[in-house]
Amino acid sequence: MKTFKLVIVGGGSTYTPGIVKSLLDKKEDFKLEELRLYDNNEERQRKVGILVEKVVEKFDPELKLTLTTDPEEAFTDIDFAFAQMRVGLYRMRELDEKIPLKYDVVGQETCGPGGLAYGLRTIYPMMEMIDFCEKYAKPTYWIVNYSNPAAIVAKAMRILRPNARILNICDMPVAIMRNMANILDCDRHDIVADYFGLNHFGWFTKIRVGDEDRTEELKAYVKEHGYMPPDERSEVRHNDASWKHTFDNAKYLARMFPDYLPNTYMQYYLLGDQIVKDADKNHTRANEVMEGREKRIFDAVDTYEKTGEIDMTPFFTGVHGEFIVEVAMSLAFNLRKRHLVMVPNRGAVKNLPDDAMVEIPAYITSEGPEPVRVGEIPAFYKGMIEQQEACEKLVVEAAIEGSYEKALMAFTMNKTVPSAFVAKQILDEMIEANKEFWPKLK
Ligand code: NAD
Ligand code: G6P
Ligand code: MN
């Protein structure tokens, strides 16, 4: 039986124990020869590593686990890298969210000016990681990337490292499909979704369960309740009150634009004024996560170090870990499973640019994704996507050329930003806040 060497990049992430659990759940079919954790923050990874060790002990005690901060040790001969780096940690996420809010602009991790700032931090570290893979990994390596902002990362890597074996994915569509499955009372694996857009910017056009088209039934439900399932049955992931609010907001979009069912992230572009009104400018999602998910992990490790006792179940994150493993298995075994992933457009959405990185269904083969053809999309959606795509293109060009002017164009182009004056104020404050991370903009 073929076995695999796999490295998790961003080993110190809050998601690592959950991903490892999902990997080991599949050990009969996807056998690991070695699991490595790699991070540039040794202490954070050491702590999360204690939890991971426990997960390994429980679910696959034979497995060799290595923790390292050395790229050569991390990437040598690997088959897979699962990437989930957060450049600047939650400290910078907090600023990404709070700086725009000062100007009454949406403050969000991946959308609006916060997402653009996060993109400018992440492009070069991601490129460096690809170079480590090219240098040390097996030539058939695959990087499956969750690192955000995935839309900007995907676009930048396409330009900077066009031959890299990287597949960019997001857990939001599949998490929405998990809720849809609850609503339709079926298994999420039986849902066949048609979808188009960019990452964190798209719409479901058709939902089938097996061969049965259940789109209209689902639309009727979402217009009433958003994506909140009837029995509030949910899992650890996306279970905080703010996430429930986000799932609920989908009802307004489904009522106003009944053609398609929105990705939850459309709320930031279409309901921006309300999102700003609902926000607490001094306490954003980054604070919630630091006080919640992040604290729970590090508290559990501290308790374990003192008492030798640990409860790991709060760290098993369901669909987030399952999805990356499902995608990797389809790559590993040429399963041709159909998933929503990011791919170069190349005509798949006929009336969008060829070089856009679109999120659409694709069959995942051992040579990568084979996208389906989506065809033409209507003016409203096309216009929205083109504006966002141009914004993302400009921010990538700003990073590559070190261009202040292009960065300002990107910030101005974003639908969440009301004017060039506001864009400039936010950009200038972001430059100051991101001094240690951003390329120089002149
Ligand atoms: P986290 O801060 O807990 O973990 C990220 C880890 O990455 C940290 O340990 C940090 O030290 C490490 N890191 C930073 N720069 C690095 C580098 N250059 N090389 C190696 N390691 C590096 O963050 P988190 O909340 O667990 O999220 C991790 C990432 O996954 C974020 O980018 C987040 O946005 C992303 N994410 C994406 C999706 C998706 O749908 N695409 C879903 C969930 C999380
Ligand atoms: C969704 C998105 C991710 C994003 C995450 C943030 O799952 O798909 O891209 O990183 O939400 O969740 P959080 O709980 O950290 O706010
Ligand atoms: Mn995502």
Key terms:
442 residues, alpha/beta, Rossmann fold, 6-stranded parallel sheet, binds nicotinamide-adenine-dinucleotide, binds 6-O-phosphono-alpha-D-glucopyranose, binds manganese (II) ion
Structure description:
- The chain has 442 residues and is an alpha/beta fold.
- It has a domain at 3-168: 3-Layer(aba) Sandwich (Rossmann fold).
- The chain contains 17 helices and 13 strands.
- The strands form 3 sheets. The chain has a 6-stranded parallel beta sheet, sandwiched between helices.
- Helix 2 links the parallel strand 2 and strand 3 (64-68).
- Helix 4 (89-102) packs antiparallel against helix 17 (420-433), helix 5 packs across helix 15 (379-401) and helix 6 (150-160) packs across helix 15.
- The longest helix has 25 residues, at 112-136.
- The radius of gyration is 21 Å and the shape is globular.
- The structure holds nicotinamide-adenine-dinucleotide, 6-O-phosphono-alpha-D-glucopyranose (G6P) and manganese (II) ion (MN).
- 6-O-phosphono-alpha-D-glucopyranose (G6P) binds next to helix 7 and helix 12.
What's the structural blueprint in terms of helices and strands?
Layout (H helix, E strand, L loop, with lengths): L2 E7 L6 H10 L5 E8 L3 H18 L4 E5 L2 H5 L4 E4 L5 H14 L9 H25 L5 E4 L4 H11 L5 E3 L3 H13 L6 E8 L2 E9 L2 E2 L1 H11 L15 H16 L4 E2 L3 H5 L1 H7 L6 H7 L1 H15 L11 H15 L3 E8 L12 E9 L2 E4 L7 H23 L2 H10 L6 H14 L9
Parallel strand pairs: 1-2, 1-4, 2-3, 4-5, 5-6
Antiparallel strand pairs: 7-8, 8-9, 8-10, 11-12, 12-13
Helix pairs in contact: 1-2, 1-14, 2-13, 4-5, 4-12, 4-17, 5-6, 5-15, 6-15, 8-9, 12-13, 15-16, 16-17
